[in-house]
Fold these 2 entries.
Entry 1:
Amino acid sequence: MTRSDLRADFDPITLEVIRMRLDNIVEEMGIAMIRSSGSPVITEARDYNTALFDHQGRFFSYSDAVQLHIGSGGVAVRSLLEAIPTEEMHPGDAFISNDPHTAGSSHPPDTTVISPIFFGGTLVGFAQSQAHLVDVGGMTPGGFAPAARDCYAEALRLPPGMKIFDRGEPVDAMRRLIANNVRVPVLHWNDIRSMVASNNTGIRRLQATIEEFGLDEFRNYTALSFELAEEVLRQRIREIPDGTFHSEEWVEGNGHDDGLIKVACTMTVSGDSIAFDFAGSSPQTDGFVNCSFGALVGSVATAAVALLGWDVPFNEGVMRAFDVTAPRGTVVNPDVPAPVSNGHLTTGVRATRLVTRLLSQACVRSGNLQVSRRVQGEWGDSWTGGITAGTRRDTGEFFVWFNMDGGGTGTGAQVVGDGLDAGGAMGAVGNMLPDVEMNELLYPSLYLWKRLAVDSCGPGTSRGGMGLDFAWTLWGAEETTETVFSPTAAVPPWGFAGGCPGGGSGFAVLRDTNLDRLLSERVAPDNATIEAATVEQLPVNAQGVALRAGDVLHCWIAGGGGMGDPLLRPASQVVADVRDSYVSPELARSLYGVVVDRGAEGWDAAATDAQRTAIRRARLADAEPAVSPTREVVAEITSAADAIPTVDDDGEWRCPACRSSLGTSPGWTAETVAVSRPAAARLADHGVKARDRSGGEQGVWLEEHYCRHCGTQVQTQLLVKP
């Protein structure tokens, strides 16, 4: 049967059985890796991916641990096919690579192992496993190198085609070469073996599947699955009016200086396809924030699939509806020798934010509610990384600890409710936060607290999710060195449709504290009880920071952006936030306009109406020139879906609160009034924490747009200007 015949008369049960079989295989591959690895980055935090590809490098199925890796995984397999002729591949072979420039890796620690799959002597595909390994050599323990000036200083670079297993046996020369260049060789080699074990699991299961269905039927049905997934995506894109959308994001420093680096994206919706063009992004830099093209593709796919393909089988067909281009030699597609060890968690996640923003701006125009309600506030989408290296006091053993708590960012607000607290980055929603007890068991550390950062979520009708706030001290080591990076410090994630930006991230070291006395007196250490001789707020990127016994490392992590004007949040939800200590009574009044009392409902309805009216009037009075309101709020707002401007049949946008016109421009801000203020100070008014960057040539400003008729906030955006 040809595929055209199959397309006309296929068996949907067989199609679904094969698809689900492939999904189950990649999940079983991940289980095999977890059970054979010794690294908590894999076993506790699930910082890995597993996938199956066909013989041409198109992916059948992909595990749900780290979505960002799909770009680098695909590039790695295709690069292997270019480097090694298929006739030189044999059953039992495994090839290793980690070089972002030549093999597409997100960064050098994200090491890939690829194994060819044969059936009856025919190459039918590849099993691919990728995992973050805790050290890959280079100038800095842990593989993140803020001080690096080129990629040669960052890690041992393994290009495509390096054979690590030959017909089932380890290649000892490669093993010794790698072990000689990493700081934890036993753990490193065991993790490589765990990826080989993962691939072997995938090989056996795929061979059994092909044996069951036959090679021709298997190939026809997997090709049909590609086509159907692509069709669903393209149909949803057709529901979005054609248009071009542009925005910019900013990477905060490159490890050597504090300058902001531009990531620009122009998105074009045309018929049933979407093109993402990153022309206009800054040239590549000599710092570690350059993003490999493989990581860029994964960053784009992360947001595009989440917003448009949330229920579509994730295979090669999904990727065909999108086109990603980026000029060579830029921060989003660098050439050798650009350093790249943190590009995916800085520049890459900025690209994810951009795509989330641009797709939200496009989807809101759709007449299909299923598509238009995919809009959302931007996620915290960064990784607030801390890598600790030192020697244990009891055994004298050297250790490297990549603390996976750094992934606890808040997600963006949704039309159906608030963002998830500590939900993770959009590109790694399958990651998990490690247990405190497990970190303390594996590393010489003692946690003092681990809680939600209430000053991190973007306010709104739906608020963004909160990030984590945690602190720990050394417990079993005299001194360590820290490598830290907090990519979202001064330029936090945007809200949507009047929702406010989320908070930033950062690190501080509390030096010479009274911690020993507190513990001896059994007093719980917290912000109120810890006293420190100095509090050292660390730069956005730093390495070689000394941490000594008695010091405390404090970390706070970005939250998500809100959606809709905070004044439109139902008062009952604000009161619940006050009850949960997420919002203070003072902030409930000044930001949300809710006057909390002890009455039956928990708020004073008349006083709340008056307070919200006063805030709207004050907003318009702050504009230049000042404006007086001419309309009252008439809409009943029950969720963020009601707080988004709507467009009528004549292309005229309407304020969600008073139904007045916001104009007919592609956006809804042409006829609003706007007020710009330094971002950190204005966010502080919202109870949100961000690093101040209001001075100099690259100041960060928050611009708030209000309906000129009633004072409802309909848009906020962050601008970089003097």
Entry 2:
Amino acid sequence: MTAASPEEAVAALRAAGPAVPPVPEETPKVAFLFPGGGTQYVGMGEELYRDHDVYRDAVDRCARVLRPVLGRDLRTVLFEEADPEGTATLLALVVTEYATARTLMESGVRPDALIGHSLGEYTAACLAGVMELEEMLPLVAERIRLIKSAGGATVGVAASAETVLPLLDERLSLAAANGPAACTVAGHTEDVERLERELTRREVPFRRLRVPAAAHSHVLDPVLPAFEDRLRTVTLRAPRIPYVTNVTGTWATGEQVTDVRHWLDHTRHTVRFADGISTLWERDRPVLVEIGPGDSLTKLARAQLADHEPVSVTTMRHAKADSPDGFVLAEALGRLWSAGVDAALPAVAGEAAPRRVPLPGYAFERQRHWIDAPGARTAPETAEAQEASAAPGTAGLASRPRLTTPHVAPRTERERAVTRLWEETLGIGGIGVHDNFFDLGGDSMRAVLLAGKLRGAGVLDVPAASLLAAPTVAGVLAAADENTAGDALGPLLPLRSEGTRRPLFCVHPGAGVSWRYTGLLPHLGEDQPVFGLQAAGLDGARPPAPDAASMVASYVELVRQVQPEGPYRLLGWSYGGFVAHAMACRLQEQGQEVELLALLDAPLPHGVPYTPEAAERQVAALLLRMAGLPLGPDADLPDVDAVLDRIGRLARTDGGSALPVTREEAAAIAGVMRNNLRIAPEFTPGVYRGDMLFFTAAEDASGRAGADAGDLALAPDKADAWRPHVDGVLEDHSVPCGHYDMTEPEPIARIGAVVAKALRPASD
């Protein structure tokens, strides 16, 4: 149990903790598991770097080694930039794993065995003594560069390798055999797309991996000679710590790992992780400790070892989870200690020694002797917790982990129905309606599976993207519930209608819809109502706004229908930012107070020329982003009708479970966006009398796909452009992401924290 205050400790002690197996008589062995590419994110380990000397020293050492290789400081990549698929960010993953492992080892948790997945095997080999850190990191940099230069794509499939192999030909390679229902396939992009169509036809869930490359496949054959030349410059030694290699799925030998051919095979051939984890388990049945972000490998290991119930521990949060780094690491040390790894009890190096508090050596046997009045019923002391743990359908599920989010049990039949399917999908009982999907171990593949289960059970018809944007039971219901939100394309979208505070009104971006603001909800508090303003024309009930003045007037009227008098709170992302600014000026002209105006990377539109051709490119690019389809160079960008047809085909073949919009919704959005871009130059900003929050997307727009060329949203120095139009303080906050990523979970968490703080001092 970990707590940052006496109040947290009391709450944790009163809550049911996760079940732990009996502590063995002998100290259990420990195995470190190192994930490969795909788990990385910007900001991973940032709190550990700030607070833990060993972690910071390890990262600093790696940064010194990599500076001549990268031509810049790796720490900038780790904590400031926002390119999760970039070469440097993949290197940052290896550095993060190395620093985390060193931190645990200095804490007293020494691994008895190691296993890595693909890129993670290099971290394992370095810690095992096969490669020196100063040689391993530049070698990995070259490996990443060569793999990316070869191109291709990789798709994760929720099926066994045996099921998928008959679907492959010489143009597709089995890249990884990860478990009884998990494998990956790689090849050239067009061949992977062909496989995806077949998987869709067979109703086999799949997910395209983020990195545009085809590691562990025939696509790499042309670059292997260059990698061989680089390998021959590295000194290879026999391992000092035993580890299992992906190449064979068995223990690595000194003869193997000192042979250059072995490392070429490791890059080119299938990752045999399922075999490897079985090999690891057979020797000592160790505690499995995932070193690095998330719990992807421990999930795969538990699936492979389902008959054995291994003890697994994670050390760093998932990219979209909310728990602080220090909390997760402290929980990891506590779980290791409770599993019998006594060396985990001392504090991390550099911290004060722990203070032991003696506790009674026996359990208090409470007995109740009060005589109740006739007809009276005795309520249990922790009714909610007991109800959650004893709820139907939770038998055989793991206990809810202790989260920083207070537990709120489902209150309605719909909440209970959705929660039961979350529990079934995640294997966790007692989930609360405000628990973060990713804190509970969810990922994008599980979101696709859950969306299908919700639809198949007739409980809720939502796309997987809704679960990713609003990763709580309450959030996804608030975004999709027709009874509380009305038409999902209507002019007013109550993202959260309940609460006693003054509402926050969020103005739609260029697409006209406000769904993406659901990510704000967990960060603003349960008592903060949030409404999304959506463009006329989406629902077919009225035509789009004829001009900028009409749009502003209609939105002000809509806001005043909900809240007749100020003070008002307005927020807008991109297009919605300059509309929110115009609304704030109009409300002030009407004698109303505006106490909060927040703009998320909003450009200044006045004077920017409009051309139908450029608008069509932006609409096509926007639809591709919304549908989760790849966005290529401008020259290869399909026209809007072609994108709509592709969305329609995907919706027909997979039921739309992996799409955030239907073809009809996408067509309505395309029409509204065309109109919004047409009237954008008409917004002539006035002067807002008051302070304004601004959030700048820090990622440099250069080097993006050609479809973004000339995009107003990517204009530089947006905050400075607004300063003449604010009669007060313009407080600019840099957010490490791109413009179109502002409402992704991690950036919106940063934004939500600032907005929540700005809302709190205001009188409600």
